[in-house]
Write a structure and sequence with these properties.
Blueprint lengths: L4 H11 L4 H8 L3 H8 L7 H10 L4 H5 L8 H13 L4 H12 L4 H18 L2 H15 L12 H14 L3 H10 L7 H10 L3 H33 L2 H16 L9 H19 L3 H20 L27 H10 L4 H18 L1
Helix pairs in contact: 2-3, 6-7, 6-8, 7-8, 8-9, 9-10, 10-11, 11-12, 12-13, 13-14, 14-15, 15-16, 15-17, 16-17, 16-18
Amino acid sequence: MKMMLAENIRSFRKERSLTQEQLAEALGVTAGAVYKWEAKLSTPELELIIQMADFFDVSVDVLLGYEVKDNRLEATVKRLREYRRSKDWDGLAEAEKALKKYPHSFQIVNASAALYRAFGIDSGDKTLFHRALELLEQSRFLLSQNEDPQINEQTIFGRIAETYLGLGEADKAIELWKAHNAGGQYSSQIGDTLAQNGYVEEAVPFLSEAFTKILSDLVRTIVGYINVYLERGDHASTQAILSWGIGLLQGLREGDNSNYFDRVCAALLATLAGSQFLSGQDSEARGTLVKAKELAAFFDAAPSYDESDIRFITRIEGASAHDDLGVTAMAGVSLAVSQFENEEFTALWNCIEKEEENHRG
């Protein structure tokens, strides 16, 4: 509950153009008493509060100006998350109150654990990490209540591991991450922690696995954004994200050898050309299509699907690259062109292909 008594005394007094001395005279108190009320140095007795409410022609409730917090479960969880977001340490006391009121609520226990863990990271205070561990372990037994699809037992174990890391217990953190590394979701944390603790060679396979997953997710995300921007007719954004993504992926070439991302970039270049063509940049579109054709030809001359040909990545047991771009990189470029369903753009591509054929002839 938050009260606004001091602020309201001052506000109502000024509304009536009264000085502190004049209000004090009306209430039969000293001017110093009024000053202390407004400065929150003291609180008037109940009888004086009732007398002031009558004097200002308002109810006692209005004069007090109290705000009752919504202490229902959902509102409390939301408030705990806001404390964490705003780094407001008052949230720790709020969390303990909530835990007393809702001791068996997964949402409350989980949100409180996140709050303690976050403040532990910010401050390095191990007592906060220990409290976070208690709450995370408690949340595991309440997991059946969870309705958030982004939280499951694996993610909770991941947070427990991060908390152990905050306590300086790297071995426990690594052990937990390894035991719950389904789909490689904790490979980056495992690799990073191993490397920081001197286990360099053991770290490399985990870092390679994490990097490969990041690149795969990145390409998928870029393609998703492309579809969004093209649907909106936003060619500036389409070209911006394509240029950024292509530049990033082409930086993964190791020496003069081709790698799988040359094949991907050839198709992305064709998509960039399509956006340029539709936005009236005909000469730029032609130049980009030529680059797409050249990169596709470079890959098709010595195709590589081996992840170890990608810069920073070592061989990953059981890994393989697959896509729906066609048998060759050149087929991928043609497919990207055809998806624009624009006869003039397709004709431009066909012309560039024939130029290459004539050159070979």
